[in-house]
């Protein structure tokens, strides 16, 4: 009876693992490049959120947002489903949380400027 895994199979598995590791490291590196959080509330101009100071602030009546350790989350909202509250902490470029009934969004973007309009994953 022959071997179940041949030499070519081992090489293919190692190449696939190397590619997966490379993609993971690239995504982590890109996400760590000085992310900036923005608050967009009810057709108002978007405002940068200061991530250096731990704070809890009101984004609208009955909507509280917490900033802690360079992360942001909805603490309280009067919307019926509480999806924004249950979403938890966001902290990486590309992350976002939206409260549709209150028309409030918190979006993390990369602090680095590039010539790329968008990235699809």
Secondary structure layout:
Elements: H1 7-31, E1 36-41, E2 47-49, E3 55-60, E4 63-68, E5 71-76, H2 83-86, E6 96-99, E7 104-109
Antiparallel strand pairs: 1-2, 1-7, 3-4, 4-5, 6-7
List keywords for this structure.
single chain; 121 residues; alpha+beta; mini-chromosome maintenance (MCM) complex, domain 2; 2 domains; 4-stranded antiparallel β-sheet; 3-stranded antiparallel β-sheet; 2 helices; 7 strands; 24% helix; elongated
What does this structure look like?
By secondary structure, this protein is α+β, with helices and mostly antiparallel strands. The chain folds into two domains: 1-31; 36-109, Sandwich (mini-chromosome maintenance (MCM) complex, domain 2), CATH 2.60.320. The chain has two helices and seven strands. The protein has helices at residues 7-31, 83-86; strands at residues 36-41, 47-49, 55-60, 63-68, 71-76, 96-99, 104-109. The strands form two sheets. Strands 2-1-7-6 form a four-stranded antiparallel sheet, with no helix packed on it. A three-stranded antiparallel sheet has the order 3-4-5. The longest helix has 25 residues, at 7-31. The N and C termini lie far apart (43 Å). The model has no long low-confidence stretch (mean pLDDT 85).
